[in-house]
Amino acid sequence: xxxxxxxxxxxxxxxxxxxxxxxxxxxxxxxxxxxxxxxxxxxxxxxxxxxxxxxxxxxxxxxxxxxxxxxxxxxxxxxxxxxxxxxxxxxxxxxxxxxxxxxxxxxxxxxxxxxxxxxxxxxxxxxxxxxxxxxxxxxxxxxxxxxxxxxxxxxxxxxxxxxxxxxxxxxxxxxxxxxxxxxxxxxxxxxxxxxxxxxxxxxxxxxxxxxxxxxxxxxxxxxxxxxxxxxxxxxxxxxxxxxxxxxxxxxxxxxxxxxxxxxxxxxxxxxxxxxxxxxxxxxxxxx
Length: 287
What we know:
Structural class: mainly alpha
């Protein structure tokens, strides 16, 4: 019983990380209709900002600074690049791919490929039956839940959330009401940077990170965004929980070397049943 509880806990933790990455992807796609392949680099920025800053500063100071740095980077990337590609999907795709390759090589030159770890809470507690669980994993789950809940409130109750949802539903109709897709795109990238930075810091607190860590989570972020339905925040949350639990249970009781097979297998099954994703009930308009 304790072994199953530990496996489920690991699955929920992974689901939280996938949700943080996937939500950022689906928010930016909803406004710009561009799949941002460079989104994983925001995760890497958050992870290495935390690792670097905690070498010189205390964790309570380093964490908000690392998060702020990631948000600023995301905003700058939008302002100097993606802002000019709205309405031109091919140009936006080319820019995001080029930025991803440039950033990955830059991070390798800056930090090498040697795995690094961030600060973490030491100690464990025992589940029923004696299985030990690290407090750092519990913290990751708590932070993921709090950040996702905060973003949900932002989307439902604030004028920023209203603007994001309006442009995501129909940016042409939103424009007639005075909402600029380019301005709202900045809001989307700021929120996406916040989510990705949080994911990067959480990853660095429980596992070694390299300049390629963001790319690994980008792939999973795409999987949950597609399973849930591109543009659907609710779909991303459900898909993240599904994928996290499927990976954890399969890795524990079947074969841990086939994690990617489980992820893409789940995506294929869902798309065969619901080609638009679980929660995507509208066609995405081009233009």
